[in-house]
Amino acid sequence: MITPKGVTLNAVQMAKKLRMDWWLFAVSVALALFGVMMVYSASAMIAMRENANEYSYVTKQFVFAIAGILLMMGISQIHYKRLENEWLIIGGLTVTIILLAAVFAFSPTNGARRWIKFAGFTFQPSEVAKPVLSLFLAYFLTKNETTVGEFKKTILPCLMVLGLLSAMILFEPDLGTVIVMAAIFTVVYFAAGARLLHILAVVAAILVVFTGALILQPYRMARLGAYLDPWQDAGGVGYQVTQSLMAVGSGGIFGEGFARGQQKLFYLPFPYSDFIFAVVAEEFGLVGALLVVLAFGVLLWRGTRAALMAPDRFGKLLGIGLITGIIVQAFFNISVVLGILPTKGIPLPFISYGGSSILMTLISVGILLNISQHAGFVELENPDDTPDASNAGPRNNRRRKTTRVRAREA
């Protein structure tokens, strides 16, 4: 078997490869294509005003969605164990840190430096940081399985990586992505077998950092005040959430109809990105909004199933980290649109406009799809370790044959 340096794939480690999880595949493709449709509806009039081309936003979104789907299908055929490579993970972290530092060399957009800009295209490195963090945590917590509860050997290195990535993203500034990364760390660390006391200590430390981030930035405190009573200053700091709530309320049960929403017509800020779920609710009503939530529920179900049924610890932790990142981000976006959480710019996975977001989300799903192909099978012992041949009836013969087939498939 041909494997990367440092990765050993043998009959004991490998599980039989199954067919692709079509539920996970179908809901991901459906959300991505639905996102293209909604980006057109939400951006057409804005695009006409900016450059007299109503298709400028949707064309880019369509290209990235198709590229993401193709990447997802390709990555789903690459065994996830090939990612369990020390040099690959170190390289991924290094490249991510370099890209996060590079954004400060470019001009800000809407007061934030989150993008690398080149030839009319932009790239957001913070989108890469989320799956890279999941990959690092899965590898490191698998490698140090016996010392998960030790602060110096395991907890501190993980917190240092999280802290470095989060600090660079926080200075962009982008508190929303930092919240998602903190959620990934907490869930993966808990799934790795950490003690509840350690989890609570880490969560307390993260909350202290977030409190400091709120206090040091007056506009964040203003948003917190608007969250408590957005109608008190509906034309100021409460403008975004009040316009969002009006869009959601206007949709009623069945909505105004596709492309017939009114709030996106220069009332609702960023209707094609951060607040696209409000456009969905206005045009497709409560029924459409619930269907989108249901789609993310199916994604959570199938992604979690793939992770929990993975044949090894690395696959479990990697899958948990990836699905946590997608679902937590969706939860925060929808909660902000509905006024459940304070306003924070964070895209809705698959649906919001943004090439970096949809590419990295579909790549993450591609890895989950590969994990799902190996889910639900226990690892068989090597045939040489089975009882003596005199007691090995047809069943043991089948086990030996299956193990050889797995080795060839690997």
The counted number of beta strands is 2
- How would a crystallographer describe the biggest sheet? 2 strands, antiparallel
Uncertain residue segments: 1-15, 378-410
Structural class designation: mainly alpha
**Approximately what portion of the residues adopt beta-strand conformation?**
under 5%
Mean pLDDT: 84
Intertermini distance: 7 Å
Give me the strand/helix succession.
HHHEEHHHHHHHHHH
How are strands sequenced across the largest beta sheet?
Answer: 1-2
Radius of gyration: 23 Å
SS field, number of helical segments: 13
**Rough shape?**
globular
Indicate the percent of residues in helices.
55-70%
The domain tally reads: 1
Care to describe what's here?
With 410 residues, the chain is mostly helical. It has one domain (22-379). It has helices at residues 22-51, 56-75, 86-102, 126-143, 151-170, 175-191, 196-216, 218-228, 239-250, 276-308, 313-337, 355-372, 394-409, and strands spanning 116-118, 121-123. Strands 1-2 form a two-stranded antiparallel sheet. Helix 4 packs parallel to helix 6 (175-191) and helix 5 (151-170) runs antiparallel to helix 6. The protein is globular and about 55 Å long.
